[in-house]
Structures are given as structure tokens and as C-alpha cells.
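forwarding from the other thread:

> can someone predict this with uridine-diphosphate-N-acetylglucosamine?

sure thing
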Amino acid sequence: MRILSVVGARPQFVKLAPIAKALEGRAEHVIVHTGQHYDELMSDVFFQDLGIPAPDYNLGVGSGKHGEQTGAMLAGLEKVFEEAEPDVVLVYGDTNSTLAAALAAVKIHIPVAHLEAGLRSFNRRMPEEHNRVLTDHASDLLLSPTQVGMDHLASEGLAERSRMVGDVMTDVLYTVRDQLAAQGQPLPDGVTAGNFYVCTIHRPDNTDDPARLKAIVESLAALGKPVLLLAHPRLKALAETHGIDLAAGSIVLHEPLAYPQLVNAVANSAGVVTDSGGLQKEAFLLRVPCTTIRPETEWVETVELGWNVLVNGDLSRLAGAVERPAPAATDAAPYGDGHAAQRTVDALLEAFAK
Ligand code: UD1
């Protein structure tokens, strides 16, 4: 059986790592990189650090407007699928690469499996929300990380195609955390263990409007501990365009970190401030309080359990949220047990092996 994975953006490389490992010896695995993310720190280091085999194909699509970027992927992926003739195309998460791959496959009658199915923000301003909904409805097998995801799929009439497998990001996080415990890792310059916050901001709703971005940066700059701001290229480019100083006040400006260094930084931090989906969960799994600069989250369990607080319109609430005391300890495991990749491969073989 031949499984073809399509990835393109940073969070997808993280999800691919445990799947590639779990597929070893069980099925042939073809990896396609769309090239959506292309900077070394956004792409190559993840393949190296997480031991992912080099992609069999790289479309080199790069950046662009949504239609331009997604369209280029669609055309490129169709050719690759025709050549590679997979039994199933596996797509990950909610990026433009996910949607392009699902659409390219379904049009030429190749079955599609969607990993991380069923997540919803119900916020139609987010490109990821369109990508999720459209991908789920185009897919033949929906692999959901959580019960909440399963419930969303059921309410959209997709229960029969859905399987709960757990979250593969838990698998990779636990593996890397255990390796770090064995090896130790230095922290980036300018921060000391227990006395800094880890911050990422990259969502268009936070970066693209200069007044909004300026207000967020000013709130971060005024926090009472150093803020390690791991600047995504989108953030850097827009701050420069709008003349916003990203290194103001408490902010310690830094390049994006490789995955093991990121896990190490979060584990040693006093808290996380972010608009990333993955980081909200990583903070929770490492039991570090998180503050999310968004009106809602797909990872509602982190909020319900008290480990994540949402701040959006009124940024004067940010400092109080970030500096809040740690919540009550919990042994809840809404994101699985670290064996989601194994269950994903079992489900793929059961559904598509000839
Ligand atoms: C994409 C995903 C988002 C995910 C994020 C993780 C979509 C619609 N969004 O957002 O869901 O959370 O990846 O990072 O697919 N850029 C570079 N170098 C790179 C990659 C991007 O400079 O390696 C720049 C581009 O020029 C562009 C900006 O970053 O200006 C945005 O890149 P893009 O891939 O379109 O979206 P992300 O914001 O990264």
C-alpha cells in the first residue's frame, strides 16, 4: 500500500514526524512538500531535527495571495499524484497546502484522509476555518484528535467517516521532551529559566492591521518579565512595513526556534502568549499557563481546564491574564496518550489497504 503525505507549512512538518515513523515497515510512504514554507528555519530544520525523510517531491510554490498560492499547489499536486499513484493521500491540519491537496486528490478519484479533522473556530475570517471545513467535507476518512472534533463532524453529518485517533502533536512533544530531559539544552540569550514568557504572533487578524499590531506589541513590551518574541516572517515583514519596533520594552526579539529548542523554551518559561494553535496545546501539555490573543480557540479543552485564557478586543487585559497565577493541577488528557500516530496508521491500513 502506498500512502502519500502532503505537507507545506511548519506545523505540518511537526505532525508528519510521528506519522513517518509509524509508517516505517507498514506501508510505502511518499512525502510531498508544497514549498508553502521555504525558509530554513520554517522548514528544513524540522526535517533534520525530527528525523523526517527528505521529501520525494518539492513543488517550491512559495508565498502568494490565497488563490495564487492554492492554485499553484493544486496544479502541481495533480501532476505528482498522477505520477505517484498513491492508494490514499494524507493531508494535515488546516493550511492552504491541506486544502489544495484534498481538492487535487478528490478531483482525480484518489481517496483522501484528513489528519486533525473536526476542529472548528466558527470564525469565518480565518483562512484555516475555510480550509478545515472544505477539507473535511472532501475527505473519505476523518481522523480527529479530540472528542470535541468528533462531535463537530457528527453535527455536520460526517460521523460515519470519522475516527478518533488522538493528537499526533502529543506524540512528538512527548518524544522530544524525553530527549531533552536526557540531553539538556541551553535557552536563547537574554532569558533565564522561569523568568520569561514565550511569544508568537502571526495570524493575519493580528498582524495585518497596523493599529492592531502596534497595540499588541505595546502590550507585550509593557509586560513585567522578558518576552521572548519568536518572530514569524509574516510578523517581521509587516512590522517593518508599518514602522513598528518589535524589540521595544520587555521584548527580546528572536528568530523562530527549531522544534526541540521551542519545547525547551516553553518548558522553562513562566507562560506563553500566542495566537498559534499548536503552541496553545504545547503549553498545556507542558503545564505552562497560556494566554491566547484571539477571540476564540479550536482547542477549547485548554480553556475549560483553566490553562488558557483568551484576550482579544481589550488588550489592557493582557498583563493581568499573562501574569495570573498557575491554575489547579490536572491530569486530564484531552489530546491523547502519545500513541496517535500508531492509531492513525492502523486506521489508514484498515480503510485503504487493498
Ligand atoms: C500558514 C498557515 C497557518 C499556519 C502557519 C504556521 C495558511 C492559510 N496559513 O500561515 O494556518 O498557522 O502557516 O506558520 O495556510 N514567509 C516567509 N518564509 C517562509 C514562509 C512564509 O517569508 O518560509 C512569509 C511569506 O512571504 C508571507 C507570510 O510569511 O508573507 C505568510 O506565509 P503563508 O505561508 O502564506 O502563511 P502563514 O502566515 O505562514
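The first strand starts at residue 2 and ends at 7. thats all i got for now
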